[in-house]
Amino acid sequence: MNTYTSSIWTTAEAVRSATPLEHNPACDVCVVGGGIAGLTTAYLLLKEGKRVVVLDAKPAVASGETEFTTAHLAWYNDDSFTHLASVRGDDVARAAAASHRGAIDLIEQIVRDEKIDCDFERVEGVLFPGADGPGELNDEEKTMTRLGLEFRRDRLAFPGGQTVDALRFPAHGRFHPIKYLAKLTAAIRDRGGVIHTNTVVEKVRGGDPCKVTTTHGHSVSAAAVVVATNNPFEAGTPMHNKVAAYTTYALAAEIPKGAYPGGLLWDTEDPYHYVRVQPGGTHDYLVVGGEDHKTGQADDQPQRWDRLLAWTKERFPQAGAVKHHWSGQVFETPDGLGFIGLAPWNGPNVFMVTGDSGMGMTHGTLAGRLLADLVQGRPNELAAVYSPSRLVPAALKTLLGENLNMAAQFTDWLTGGDVKRAEDIPPGHGAVIRSGLTKLAVYKDEKGVLTTLSAVCPHMGCIVRWNPGETTWDCPCHGSRFKADGTCVHGPATYNMKPAEGKG
Ligand SMILES: Cc1cc2nc3c(=O)[nH]c(=O)nc-3n(C[C@H](O)[C@H](O)[C@H](O)COP(=O)(O)OP(=O)(O)OC[C@H]3O[C@@H](n4cnc5c(N)ncnc54)[C@H](O)[C@@H]3O)c2cc1C
Ligand code: FES
After folding, report:
1. pTM score, whole prediction
2. Domains in the chain and their CATH numbers?
């Protein structure tokens, strides 16, 4: 399965595209980033009569990580309530459960209000033990009982014959994220919201007003700015030391209707597997994810989909042709909760959301509600729970581990290359080659034509690595990703990779 990949949702829309920013408007709130977080924030602010401008780097909104999601709508915490309660306490764990549950309710309400046909459905969440045994399941049962959260212990039967213990959580959900966001985008425009795509923002300065500047030299002046770019893009922000980029893999296989036990499934392994069904016409799609690793720190990407498929076939022998397979990134935080609130770096009136922790559908949605309050100076009891400035001493070990890993990536400057010469690169592949004191990222296309770029990431100078699964250059430091020709497809980098010196 090592051809270029496509997400199950990509067939959806052209409706999302817009034109680049080519003037210097003023507004109440400028939202940078048109994924689920930015679009939800924009929609809620417009409903309150604010003048909103949304800027997005890509040709269409909802084509960042949101396009690569598997769209579980969960209030069960991805990193476990046992972990969350141990590092933040029981009250924060309860508030997290309630706020993610509230996010699913909000999506349901928006679906109803805007009459959105997006396959929204309430389903159960189901946690079951993986190869790691029943320890985590038992711990979760104890913790959730103590916290007073709703669940029941039960059994889960796979079509492959295995039956396992499981915890079941009510009131989760699933939907088609792109159908949902296409209509949300239309609702934003109907309420007077302005969207500019193909518009890369490189600077946000807080103040009264704030100023948002694009790489093409245009600017928006706004009373407040919301940076909803999935990962903050400005070099040197302290947030780069607080979130860690992980690549996660997904596939969608045809499955006969009714062959699936239902619900959103997750096991307790690390990395874990996640499963849901997406209804289709004559058959359904089984959508399975997992095999996570730190971005840019693996070289067996194609094999990860193969392992995912083997795992799937064992439990769902009816799974047929794999129609889509893809990967994307999630941004983990030390405690498993997003950073949503006043940005701790750009000065006054700049707000942010990052650190989806694999729950970006609900984090992005609850961010919309929280930020709509904070932007307008209204208190919100979740402000401290999600504060980007929070310190979590109990999670210091995790934070230090991630930061040491990040620092270690800079030693790539000192090592040799993947290969010695371009002749050693097989067609259709890329490799890093040492050239004197620096390194080159060399891609050889199927016809043998070479593209030679500087391997230095334009964000903060780490050395990128070749991803044979997606044919991209991935940065192991903060998760920037580039096509084989160096075009930036995911920030924080705001610029493409540079041609190698003397090559253009
Ligand atoms: C395989 C996979 C499975 C997942 N499964 C789930 C799941 O089941 N449930 C769940 O809740 N979450 C899941 N997630 C996570 C979730 O998809 C993401 O967290 C979420 O989509 C992020 O939304 P966002 O709006 O924060 O960011 P994005 O959708 O990435 O949007 C950010 C936008 O900002 C724009 N941007 C970036 N930099 C700039 C700049 N400098 N200037 C202008 N614009 C810029 C980008 O173009 C992009 O459109 C999954 C992720 C992956 C990859
Ligand atoms: S150095 Fe930050 S993403 Fe590459």
Report:
1. 0.95
2. 414-490 (2.102.10.10)
